[in-house]
Amino acid sequence: MRETYLAVLLVSFAGVVALDRRIGAGVTRRVALPRLARSVAAALVVFLGFDLVGVVRGWFATEAARVTLLLPPGIPPEEPILLTFLAVLSVAMYAALRGERHA
Predict the structure, then answer these.
(1) Within a domain: residue 12?
(2) CA within 13 Å, CB half, 75
């Protein structure tokens, strides 16, 4: 099941990149990647920090039978991928809705 979820995340991520290039918002262009990386890093710090607090306090629990690997504090490896996908999706949607176009 974990492999299916990871595959869906990666296909969705590729779809966002393809749509960004098709729409022309330019979020995933080579010159825009440093700015995108800063945005994604900021989102990862905040949300993975929240996940870490949740795991330590017992708010979130992942059944050992459902995953084959957990990152050190008990976070599944798909979580950073999901958060990265959501951050890139948000930035791409914002750029597209603002009507930004890059050749």
Answers:
(1) yes
(2) 21
